[in-house]
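User: Second chain of the day. Same drill as before.
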Amino acid sequence: MRWLHAILLILLALPAAAEGPLRPGLAQVDLARSSIQAEGRDRGRPRPLELRLGLSRPVPYRVYFLDGPPRLVVDFQEVDFADQDSGAMPGRDLVPALRWGRFRRGWSRMVMELPGPYALRLALQTPARDGAQGALLSLRIEPVEQQGFVTRGTALSALWDLPEPVLEGDPALPRDAGDERLRVAIDPGHGGQDPGAQVGAISEAALMLGFAAELAEELSRAGFAVTVTRDDDRFIPLEQRMTIARTAGADLFISLHADALPAGGAAGLSLYTWNQQANDRATRELALRHDRDDLVSGLDLRGADSQVVDVLMDLARTETQPRSEAFAKFVVLELRRAGIGMHRDPMRGAAFSVLKSPDIPSVLIELGFLTDAGDRANLFDPDWRVGTAQAITRAIGGWAQDDAARAAVSRK
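Assistant: Same format as last time:
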């Protein structure tokens, strides 16, 4: 493991955006001087847009685009959005979504979802006009063809808020004396302002919170140490979920979901491991649904060469990826033994954000699809939930023994 820790140290040493604690006297947003404006008549096609943001003082900022869905991201140093409602921005109805908030020490973020691909034509921060105090940030963007849509994002997003790693022999996350229990992180998907999939009054976030509690209880009874990324209905950014797992010293990460696809699109339990090349229609739709509501969290801004980082991340995954896939196989085996119905192709790959971690074996379990009547019935059936939780627990035990045996052989 020494080489993996060394790789993580290299990643953390790459150039980073300036950061620090928020200082008193943060810049405030003035909605009276802020707006989103569109140029020309609405003919059902994307139009040039101008974003104007009134600030109480000039601040450092950076601008870039992300895709899936297309969105404009603006990061500010030392701006306080706490008392402002993004829905009150004049012109808010011109874009599909607008969100803002604090996302990291010393930095705040605004994300504007776009009706299509755009390019930045003007970015200018000037003193406020007409005798007003402060500054005015003006961003003009224009529609472009997909090939002209330049986005930013690297594999570094998987390391957002990563605690400082240590070399082997230095206990960064000490266990109690004699505590050799396997540590499992359970991640109930969505939460808070992000309810996930919804069918009538049923929300994915609430269902997964309940099942996570039942699974955690089964795991604790079986002797595992358990961390749950959320134990109530609150929003936790995707990357922070992995941070919680790392801080707990997790040996395994399990994300729980029960999504929705068009009728007949999917049914049955399935397991996903990381695969950046996965590109079938259902997987693309699920990836969009899983990551769409995490706009405020966004991606890491560290100024590193993405190709170098990708290579290092792939190298780190040469150990964890086979272990993730091995665990998924154990789960499928135990579910079949328990007679739990699964998708016809239960083991799949996907580029879900919570599976990016290079240092913790990770799987995402779709317990079913709320758009399928049979899956909905299962998710509300106490016997099905208990049987599924017990099968996953047995799978963890079997995988842990197999994983330890393989590690012992590799050390020889």
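The first strand starts at residue 27 and ends at 38.

User: Great, on to the next one.
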